[in-house]
Specification:
Layout lengths: L3 E3 L6 H18 L17 E7 L2 E9 L10 E7 L8 H16 L5 E6 L3 H5 L4 E2 L4 E3 L2 E8 L3
Antiparallel strand pairs: 1-2, 2-3, 3-4, 5-8, 6-8, 7-8
Length: 151
């Protein structure tokens, strides 16, 4: 798998379009979650966009936000998504492994915090994330806060 990690100003127009289209197709249309996806965090100078393509179609994407963007004391991983055509092959686990590696490179010695859909708790547990909150609603979907401590 050829993973790419870029800052906003390094993305090509096509890469940006593909990432945003995937996010809208899955989060807004498939999950019927109406929320303002374009929140200006994508353009922050420290935000990292991690993604890969399969057969010229975007297959996986997430963004990594620096400490202070989502959480005061943690960098975070969000907008985690696998395209429908790429699901069921373990790509989500590869995506998280790449994200954790990128966090350790760009934000060394910092624990990572995420806001995870509650039903995905065991998935994130497999990557070392531990639940640190009660359930809360985010865009009318049950979520939990989770943290991965640095080794």
């Amino acid at each position: 798998m050829n993973w790419q990690i870029k800052k906003f100003n390094q993305l090509t127009t096509d890469e940006l379009y593909d990432a945003l289209k995937l996010r809208i197709d899955v989060f807004v249309v498939e999950q019927t979650c109406f929320y303002p996806d374009l929140d200006d965090l994508d353009r922050h100078h420290q935000t990292l966009h991690l993604y890969c393509y399969q057969d010229d179609k975007i297959a996986a994407y997430l963004r990594i936000l620096a400490q202070g963007q989502s959480y005061d004391n943690f960098p975070s991983i969000g907008r985690v998504i696998i395209a429908p055509h790429a699901r069921g092959f373990g790509l989500g686990h590869e995506l998280m492994e790449e994200a954790i590696l990128a966090c350790s490179q760009y934000f060394p010695s910092q624990a990572i915090k995420i806001s995870a859909q509650e039903h995905l708790e065991k998935y994130y547990n497999k990557h070392g994330f531990i639940r640190v909150s009660d359930m809360y609603l985010e865009d009318d979907i049950p979520h939990i806060a989770m943290v991965k401590e640095v080794p």
